[in-house]
């Protein structure tokens, strides 16, 4: 390029290059060089003799440059030429050549304005190798996307299969002994939620089993031709389960697929509602307790155990529900008497005793299930302690306080949160003070420990001046 | 009034309630601002994709979290915008096409990663609208179709996405599955002729009842697409395409709202 720089230090020596050599030098310095007249006609095509062939391009000479460019390249060329003529600084441009004889050729040119006649010298680099690489990239990406799409289809089938089958299925990694996947039915049988159980050590889900021993027993059972499934007791649900294993390999990993069945026969085929109700009982956020007609707990769900800090069902089963209510037998009697009279009682507010002498505010609904020889009471117990702490006039029901905080953290810095909080706090306090004093500014300022002047400034800042008329 | 007195007397419940109220105010404020489109984030994303500098990419992603922009909005709105910006950089020669190609590939990987987080995403129900979305052979641009497929799937539609399928595959799909519509994504005018043939072959199999819509970057560059391809409609807007076909998304997901807005509202 320096050949053309009149002020370069090499200028003197270069000036001695014979003019007939300059064309050869330019051609060798680039892959393809074009000389274009001010009218946009290609006056000279110089292809590098040592470079991979462009084919013969001499027929471009005498043609408008536009005639050998793709349509989007023409627009680019015009834009770059206008810039070049305006500031005379060299410009890089990527264009695609096309004519009836050659395929599309991408070329990166550096354009030089040749004074005084205004011709343009364009020194080009052949981008075909890069274009080929780009095509490879596009192909690789395409096959990746295709793989992903077919994976997605199969994944959907697998998920639907897992969720609709009546069989309880648990997939366990033989290497780690942890649960890789399980379906809802299996989670219910084991007595936990699906999310809790994924990643849990399978051996610990059964009573009295150590990891190595469990996996070995399963592996032996899986290869044996005809053996009965293993009879185990689930730790969380206390259910006796028959576990039938199959060992298989997927992508090198040894996996164990266990089918779980209830040991006690007679677990009648469940319909959708029963299954959903069972799911709600196990997964639900509210405590559910069934008692006999005297209020003795027969069964309670995990949420109730959490509410009362009980370690397991055995710790509450057989005890009176009254023991867990703050007003004891009085609470229980109000609930059961009302339920017995009209079938149900709703929104009874009281407190539940937790272990370690704690108390939690709750709302209880009671239902009298009298359609059977031995009637039952069903209690749904909802923790209202957090809602109570949040519930304030004008606040609305704010169960999402915790979520609000999570939404803020990570989306703003602590500094920003504190700064914005200050504004909100100020505004709320001022509003309250104005309300308390029935819009007596002097009294409000005094209450807030502000001068009248600064109260007025803040009222303006928070757009509270409109309260004047009230 | 009770609040103020509780606070003054230092009642713990009162202060908690008060703090909750303050936080709710803050959240409401940040939600309101998150709905606005942020061109600076498009720049940050495009720049992040050009570089190999992990820190720059991380900074760009942090900026999105700070702005409370959901990953859905990022996939539906910001990824396509960043791709368009990369295209503009090539047109103005601010970037070479090698750079643009690599950055676009990274962008697509990002879109895919966002789409891959399916936790909690319900499978399309049995009655869901089913769509065939095809990027015809010869096309290099698949980002738009991948983004559109993600968007439609989140709206509860069952989408079969086929990228540059072999000759006969589309016909086979139309014959064996029953689609409610076929969408074709096209970017360059050279693809019009193959699409015209594809449309004709699908019509022959499925008759005139199956709506065929052409979309993609071509829509901005060609104004007589319906005549040129034989399709029923041409639009660059996925939701408009659905409306044209008389199809609706899952109830509760208003199809008329731009993705970034509806996602925020649901959050």
Helices and strands, with pairings:
The complex is a heterodimer of chains A (about 475) and B (about 270).
Chain A: H1 11-14, H2 19-29, E1 32-36, E2 42-47, H3 71-87, E3 91-97, E4 105-114, E5 119-126, H4 128-164, E6 168-173, E7 179-182, H5 184-190, H6 194-197, H7 211-223, E8 230-233, E9 240-250, E10 253-262, H8 272-283, E11 287-291, E12 297-300, H9 302-307, H10 329-342, E13 344-354, E14 358-369, E15 376-383, H11 385-390, H12 401-408, H13 414-436, H14 441-448, H15 452-461
Antiparallel strand pairs in A: 1-2, 1-5, 3-4, 4-5, 6-7, 6-10, 8-9, 9-10, 11-12, 11-15, 13-14, 14-15
Chain B: H1 2-8, H2 12-34, H3 39-50, H4 54-66, H5 71-91, H6 97-116, E1 130-135, H7 143-154, E2 158-163, H8 169-176, E3 181-185, H9 192-206, E4 212-215, H10 218-221, H11 225-229, E5 233-234, H12 238-244, H13 259-266
Parallel strand pairs in B: 1-2, 1-3, 3-4, 4-5
Helix pairs in contact in B: 1-2, 3-4, 3-5, 5-6, 5-7, 5-13, 6-7, 8-9
Structural notes for this entry:
The complex is a heterodimer of chains A (470) and B (267). Chain A has 470 residues and is α+β, with helices and mostly antiparallel strands. Chain A has a five-stranded antiparallel sheet. In chain A, strands 7-6-10-9-8 form a five-stranded antiparallel sheet. Chain A has a five-stranded antiparallel sheet with strand order 12-11-15-14-13. Chain A folds into four domains: 2-126, PAS domain (Beta-Lactamase, 2-Layer Sandwich); 165-262, PAS domain (Beta-Lactamase, 2-Layer Sandwich), CATH 3.30.450; 284-390, 2-Layer Sandwich (Beta-Lactamase); 407-469, Arc Repressor Mutant, subunit A (Orthogonal Bundle), CATH 1.10.10.60. The longest helix of chain A is centred in the N-terminal third of the chain and has 37 residues, at 128-164. In chain A, helix 13 crosses helix 14 and helix 14 packs across helix 15 (452-461). Chain A has helices at residues 11-14, 19-29, 71-87, 128-164, 184-190, 194-197, 211-223, 272-283, 302-307, 329-342, 385-390, 401-408, 414-436, 441-448, 452-461; strands at residues 32-36, 42-47, 91-97, 105-114, 119-126, 168-173, 179-182, 230-233, 240-250, 253-262, 287-291, 297-300, 344-354, 358-369, 376-383. Chain B is an alpha/beta fold. Chain B has helices spanning 2-8, 12-34, 39-50, 54-66, 71-91, 97-116, 143-154, 169-176, 192-206, 218-221, 225-229, 238-244, 259-266; strands spanning 130-135, 158-163, 181-185, 212-215, 233-234. In chain B, strands 2-1-3-4-5 form a five-stranded parallel sheet, with helices on both faces. In chain B, strand 3 (181-185), helix 9 (192-206) and strand 4 (212-215) form a beta-alpha-beta unit. In chain B, helix 5 (71-91) packs antiparallel against helix 7 (143-154) and helix 8 runs parallel beside helix 9 (192-206). The radius of gyration of chain B is 22 Å and the shape is globular.
